[in-house]
Amino acid sequence: MRSSILSLSFLALAASAYPQPRAVTDQHEYQAPRADDSRSPCPMLNTLANHGYIARNGKNISLADMQAGFEASINLEPVISVGPFSIGVTASTTGRNDTLNLHDLLKHNLIEHDVSLSRKDAYFGDALNFDEEVWAGTSAVWRDTKATTVSIEAAAKGRLARLAKVKVENPEYNLTSAGEAAGLGETALFVAVMGDKVEGNARVDWVDIFFRESRLPFAEGWTRSADVITSEHLANMTAKVVEFSS
């Protein structure tokens, strides 16, 4: 009996010596979308729906819903959602001018744009769903070096590789200035969320899970940032993406 008590005490001490992954409540457990759920070409928004931070069916999303979902899931400053939502809601099919369905964001050159990191260009058909070949080309930049993390420089180079390929293969390539800005910001955001707000350094497996599954890798050890990810953080990260893209 004494031996058992000592063993249990040792295990308890050992467990307390290491930080444990943030517990996931049942309310925000990952659930893959159903056939009739609405999803967008944006893996971040799809992730929010898959975890129930916004409506799991992806329908009738308001600005307040989106802001609350981003804050609760990744600690994103609410003001960051205002611009994208105000653009996306112009294509709303909900019958209201203050809500949208995630699928509404598929309209080409509104929110969806050429040179997605993980989706085909609209010219090739399916710009909605994750594409293995596209992602393989983007992620080869860090995979070929056997890196375990994705730096902001590697993310920028991955986007550059994707851009070069699209320019050659898409005869209707048309990356608008708004699409260019969105692509740079999206690159900065995924590295900041999966890594840190200064250098990125996001774990490769976390990044893979996020893009492939639209899932937050809680089970693999990822945790929500303790500090708010602000518009200033993203502006600084985006500036680094631009710098490493030159």
TrEMBL record:
Residues 26-239 form the Heme haloperoxidase family profile domain. PANTHER family: HEME HALOPEROXIDASE FAMILY PROFILE DOMAIN-CONTAINING PROTEIN-RELATED (PTHR33577:SF19), STERIGMATOCYSTIN BIOSYNTHESIS PEROXIDASE STCC-RELATED (PTHR33577). The keyword Transcription regulation does not apply. It comes from Diaporthe helianthi. Residues 25-39 have a biased composition (Basic and acidic residues). It comes from the Eukaryota. GO terms for molecular function: metal ion binding; peroxidase activity. This is Heme haloperoxidase family profile domain-containing protein.
